[in-house]
Amino acid sequence: xxxxSGTTQLTGLAILDGTQQLDxxxxxxxxxxxxxxxxxxxxxxGDASATDHSASLTNSxxxxxxxxxxxxxxxxxxxxxxxxxVADTGTGEADIDATLHSPGIIQLRSGTLALNGxxxxxxxxxxxxxxxxxxxxxxxxxxxxxxxxxxxxNAGTIVAAAGTLTLARGASGGAFxxxxxxxxxxxNGPSGGASLSFxxxxxxxxxxxxxxxxxTLAGFGGADVLDxxxxxxxxxxxxxAAGTLTVGDGTHSALFQxxxxxxxxxxxxxxxxxxxxxxxxx
Length: 282
Description:
This protein has no helices and 30 strands. It is mainly β. It has one domain (2-200).
């Protein structure tokens, strides 16, 4: 355990193998290569005498994750990545439960990387077979808000399982999953023939652009909500035929491809509370 104000600086090669604790306002600053090969890191825990249960990890070099484990934040913890964060965990899952701010690069090569503490990221890519997941921190049922600020290069799967995931510049290809009551907010839509699946009850897909949504929707229904913000509910009309749902207000319209069996009369429109149109089915 390292505790108390101050900074531990890492240069060259350092290995994280086993559980390490930072507390009392401590900062860990990696400017070299930090290889996370086992165990995990607890930010804001370990020192019962500390009055400030906070800690931070800053990476300006390479943070290489090759193991299942977690960066937990029992107290107040933040992770800042201005370098390169690479996750290559095989079939395992690495969880970052601290708040993550990443103006640097995130590369997910294999396994699952779960970003559960909220925050934001600029450059992110997901390889085929890998999963980028946004859920709730350990011990919590409540998710956080995370924003992917640039277009995501997605050849794998992106899952929103809790909280709100905003894709400010959309994403290319791959699969998207709404699991449970999470919200996935596309400021700009996906491209490249993606798919989006509703797996649990009460998922919300927010679409902030008009035109065709370039992802086939599967599993939509029940308590799920499709929130089309450009289409005014005051004059909204929906039509469904041959697997295509069109909703428009005379000025803006949006088109969605649906996989499965739907009846035109089953779609219901309501105000989304922000001037747009919320669509449900059932």
